[in-house]
Amino acid sequence: MKHTPLYQAHVDAGGKMVDFGGWEMPLNYGSQIEEHHQVRNDVGMFDVSHMTVVDFKGVEAKKFLQTLIANDVDKLKAEGKALYSCMLNEAGGVVDDLIVYYQDDENYRMVINAGTTEKDIAWINAQAKGFDVSVEPRFDLAMVAVQGPNARAKVYEAMPGVEDVAGELKPFNAASLGGLFIARTGYTGEDGFEIMLPEKSAEFTWKMLMEVGVKPCGLGARDTLRLEAGMSLYGSEMNDEVSPLEAALTWTVDLSDEDRRFVGRDALEVLKDKGANNTIVGLVLEGKGVIRDHQKVVTNNGEGEVTSGTFSPTMGKAIALASVPKGSEGLCEIEMRNKMVSAKIVKPPFVRNGKVLV
Amino acid sequence: MSEVRDDRQYTETHEWILDNGNGTYTMGISDHAQALLGDMVYVELPSEGDEASAEDEFCVVESVKAASGVYAPADLEVVEANAVLDDEPELVNSSCYDNGWLVKFKSDSLDGLMDAATYAETLD
């Protein structure tokens, strides 16, 4: 199995190591629920070095990305500004979801998912033929996400010089400091930074953060945090056969420039005219139990399926994201262990910045 | 390394059974099982007087990660369920052999259980 530069640090900290798409990663360091609360109430950090950074360089970098992804990088004008987008196949299905950062019109940085890296790089390289752009995966970089209401203050305390370059960053913006790339982004619904850094510096930085009281958190808590935050997970809410229009990600698709013929646009326009049948909604279980992935959902408008189900530590109830027929509302029923259990349909997010919103 | 207590017997499906000496038995899940399941968030227990046949799934413990059935070790009748777990399912993690017990039952056909040493060997 593959290891990040922080593998030994996880083992030393008592991390329960599991196979995560070919990477041996910490699921938790004891209690996933405590780690979840740690991030909602204070600060925690995640090793996300298994994700892949890809740099795009060249005179046609902008033109290429305007073709490659469904959101429009023309929105990015200020250095360090970030954009969330899907990358689509010709049928409008999602190859991956990603964040792209602007440096200048000839330099962009993208972060893609770990499990899709091989597929993504092959896809990107195939699309790049004929463009004057170089595609450079940065397997030499590690990535640490420090998240929680106290995350920024703790990063400044642990990492001298960071406050000078990142102290004024607005959400969804990034700054550089030598080999560090510091983005005010995350996957938890809390404030914080995602820090990309040379793999050689990863363990030192991790230890410095621990020294000031930032607790390591595993990928178990990362999943319950993102689900409470109503954020999509590639492979659950969308995949190669689901379009953003069917995954409540229409806001990430930019059709405003008619001349921008990005990959998958034709298929999306057909689907848009026809009207997508399904969308992603939130569910809150009324009774006891835990909602699980792939359970059947019956709404006022027909049948659907749970795409991500879990127990919400912040709410003390089971919650889920589910793909259901458009127009579903009110109460629905979920088939759980051969029983039909009632749940309320809500609009995600469930929790943001420590507050329950549903 | 998970804890195995010498004062009780075990099943292949990681339940423990303690003979209370008065014709009743107390049952829970082993330390190995609770560690494997992780943070417990919901425990579904039978009611007093419920009967179960050997190998019936008669309790469910749910963690953040997964739901897992708990199986009757013999034909039995439930005499008490641990009502505290309704509000504090995490006791199954923090005190699986004491306060995190699941049910007490009566049975006259309990047989074929492992002693602690034999159970410990299956975990290696």
Helix/strand-derived category of chain B reads: alpha+beta
Strand order of the largest sheet of chain B: 1-2-3-9-8-5
Number of strands of chain B: 9
The CATH homologous superfamily of chain B: RNA polymerase II/Efflux pump adaptor protein, barrel-sandwich hybrid domain
Major protein interface: A-B, 15 and 13 residues
- Largest sheet geometry of chain B: 6 strands, antiparallel
Describe this structure in words.
The complex is a heterodimer of chains A (358) and B (124). Chain A has helices at 7-12, 32-41, 61-68, 117-128, 151-158, 162-166, 199-211, 219-228, 265-274, and strands at 16-20, 23-28, 44-47, 52-57, 82-88, 94-104, 107-112, 134-137, 141-147, 174-177, 180-183, 192-198, 215-216, 278-285, 296-299, 302-312, 317-325, 331-336, 339-346, 351-352, 355-356. Chain A is α+β, with helices and mostly antiparallel strands. In chain A, helix 2 crosses helix 8 and helix 5 (151-158) packs across helix 7. Chain B is globular. Chain B has helices spanning 31-37, 91-94, 116-122; strands at 9-10, 15-19, 24-29, 40-44, 51-52, 57-63, 67-71, 76-81, 103-106. Chain B is built from 3 helices and 9 strands. Chain B has 124 residues and is α+β, with helices and mostly antiparallel strands.
Write out key terms for the chains shown:
heterodimer, A: alpha+beta, six-stranded mixed sheet, six-stranded antiparallel barrel, 21 strands, B: alpha+beta, OB fold (Dihydrolipoamide Acetyltransferase, E2P), six-stranded antiparallel sheet, 9 strands, globular
